[in-house]
Design brief:
alpha/beta; seven-stranded parallel beta sheet; 6 helices
Length: 183
Amino acid sequence: REEWDPLRSADRAHRQMSECRLGILGFGRIGSRVAEVASAIGFSTAYTDLKEIPESARHGAMPLAMDELLATSDVLSIHVDGRASNHNLVGTDELNRLPAHALLVNTARGSVVDTTALAGRLRSTPTFRARLDVHDTEPIPPGHPLLDLPNAALYPHVAARTTSALQNMSRVVEALAHHLGIA
């Protein structure tokens, strides 16, 4: 018991999910699924997308302009594609609009977040955190600006590394090869 109590008190969360807003940047197939799951476990959810999303497909998420989404998100989850117009979509201005306590999660494309700007925000705001599964350059090179920052966790592109996901990706590649006549 003596050893247990300090461990438990050190890991106490400041808020529970029902007290937090999950902001979703990009409300396509994955972003909308994230909203569905997040709403089911108690998050207030909001999103920004280029397209108008019918209310019946929002899973309770509220549409917001980008500025308001950033300013009101406790967690920002990024789900946009890698088109050229999304390169550095989340830069210095966008990062500075996020609350100081926010958590940024990027499992979409590394090029969407300006790495230098993110490193600057993480250094200047120790309570700001980032969890990144995708990176502009993979593998991450030595000297990368996010290495060794205590409030950044960098993962080696593993978000879809489940047996089912890998089998599904194999089927897609096989179907595409067949369609192109190269299989």
